[in-house]
TrEMBL record:
Pfam families: C2. One of its GO terms (biological process) is release of sequestered calcium ion into cytosol. It comes from Neolamprologus brichardi. GO terms for molecular function: phosphatidylinositol-4,5-bisphosphate phospholipase C activity. It comes from the Eukaryota. Residues 1-68 form the C2 domain. SUPFAM superfamilies: C2 domain (Calcium/lipid-binding domain, CaLB). This is C2 domain-containing protein.
């Protein structure tokens, strides 16, 4: 499953997405969550950085996600994990910086 936030214009140093992305995960023991950050300007899109995290290593609450590719770059994510039925995990991410 893949979701994308809206573009934050004219705030490259401290963008605030304030969006919630919800994923239903069938097999949490093998699920990976990948965060990618792109710069979007009139000329095009430039890759800023990414991080892939095993779902089982994510803890509820607010955590910084350090991005690879760009030194000292990170996004702040709020994670809520809800067990909906005992079999399917309901995974909610609230993105903030």
């Amino acid at each position: 499953s893949k979701q994308q936030t809206r573009v934050v214009h004219d705030n490259g140093f401290n963008p605030m997405w304030e969006e919630t992305l919800v994923f239903n995960i069938q097999m949490p023991q093998i699920a990976l969550v990948r965060f990618q950050v792109w710069d979007h300007d009139p000329i095009g899109r430039d890759f800023i950085g990414q991080r892939t995290v095993a779902f089982t290593s994510m803890m509820p609450g607010g955590v910084p996600v350090h991005l690879f590719e760009m030194a000292e770059s990170s996004i702040f994510v709020h994670v809520a994990i809800i067990d909906m039925s005992g079999k399917v995990w309901h995974y909610k991410i609230h993105l903030q910086i």
